[in-house]
Task: structure prediction
Amino acid sequence: MKRYYPTFHKKQFGLPGEKVKIEKGQIYINGKLLDTFYGRAHRLGSDIDSLKQSLENIDLKDHIRKNIENIVNYFEELTMKEIEIPETAFIL
Result:
């Protein structure tokens, strides 16, 4: 017998009819910036500006600096053109 388990989602941020885009890792709903930072930086408890600021710390070990630089670069390149969510869908 195959068991099915419910899926739990932590965030729902796009509703039917809304326009959503991602620009430099930031999510915009109907042209307004969503005031939450998602993804790797969020899991680290930082936003993109905090991560950039941490790079100014001269005492960072090379591997830590490189890791932070990679995360900043990833978010600065993360972009999705604006889409309108169909009436039969939503974005998690």
Remarks:
- The first strand starts at residue 19 and ends at 23.
- The radius of gyration is 17 Å.
